[in-house]
Amino acid sequence: MEKMLQIKNLHVQFSTYGGRVQAVRGVSFDLHKGETLAIVGESGCGKSVTSQSIMRLIPTPPGRITSGSILFKGQDLTKLSEKKMRDIRGADISMIFQDPMTALNPTLRVGEQIAENIMQHENISKEKAKEKAFETLELVGIPNPKERLKQYPHEFSGGMRQRIVIAMALVCNPEVLIADEPTTALDVTIQAQILELFKDIQQKTDVSIVLITHDLGVVAQVADRVAVMYAGKIVEIGTRRDIFYTPQHPYTKGLLRSVPRLDLYESELVPIAGSPPDLFAPPSGCSFAPRCPYVMEVCDRMYPASTKLKESHQVHCWLQDERAQKFVTTIS
Ligand code: SF4
Ligand code: MG
């Protein structure tokens, strides 16, 4: 399968008055052509920082990619100049944020905003750009695009506004779309429509999507593969089936248990006890150890390596690593 992005051993730090926060600590994954990869985890797990790193949108300072690489079409994005990166942003890799209002200029008509976006990246006339804006509004399912192009952002409902933001992100035919909590600000019905729209667009354009979310319902609806992040690391990655039907990491299992189930009479939310570790001084062993019901001696001492359960499914947990026993006996 063609790889659109290859992220290798990415580390991101933030310098603060309190010290250095290690927000992303060795994240690696590939994004395949035409797939949706969801990155899930609690807030502060590093999922947004990972996606901002791909776009090189981490505020520097205080943030900094300290090591690792992000390959896109053979070039390492971490090494590109800001000017080259500006050409890539929007044209090759686009991003959609949670709040549509921050992405739109309230004083400009929607059609002009979209056309301006195109003209930043492509050398075409204003007329051609407007035509393209029209086609893109059609693609994202906005009725009467001709009339709508003349309106201002405040004249649209929240759901329609998010469609416009998606249209802006898609208008230059990017190969990769990064969506950070794209439906969190919307109510449930609209959310479902926007997720349907993502699927529809992907079928039409074969764009590859990285979807950042804390919502497993969203993941279940649209993801092909799922990466579960905890304390700055990916602890488990697999197909949607792998993660939902045969989760192996205790944290993934905990997340799935905390989702209310419609098929149970009394859907009980089971929160995971405890809180994530302090990323000023992350533990050298498994970061989930203080919250893990299965913690063993070795867990505190060494971070578990990746265990390949099958080609699509990998996990970092000593429970799945046959060397755990050996380490316990040799250490003690
Ligand atoms: Fe729990 Fe140990 Fe697995 Fe970490 S490595 S999740 S502490 S069993
Ligand atoms: Mg976030």
Radius of gyration: 21 Å
What small molecules are bound in this structure? iron/sulfur cluster, magnesium ion
**What composes the largest sheet?**
8 strands, mixed
| Mean pLDDT over the full residue set | 91
CATH superfamily: P-loop containing nucleotide triphosphate hydrolases
Secondary-structure element string: EEEHEEHEHHHHHEHEHEEHHHEEH
CATH topology: Rossmann fold
Major β-sheet strand ordering: 6-7-8-3-9-10-12-11
What does this structure look like?
Keywords: ATP-binding, Cell membrane, Membrane, Nucleotide-binding, Transport. Pfam families: ABC_tran (PF00005), oligo_HPY (PF08352). The chain is α/β, with parallel strands linked by helices and 332 residues long. The protein is built from 13 helices and 12 strands. The chain is globular and about 70 Å long. It starts with a strand and ends with a helix. The model has no long low-confidence stretch (mean pLDDT 91). The structure holds iron/sulfur cluster and magnesium ion (MG). Magnesium ion binds at residues 48, 180.
Write a concise keyword list for the protein shown above:
single chain, 332 residues, alpha/beta, Rossmann fold, eight-stranded mixed sheet, 13 helices, 12 strands, globular, binds iron/sulfur cluster, binds magnesium ion
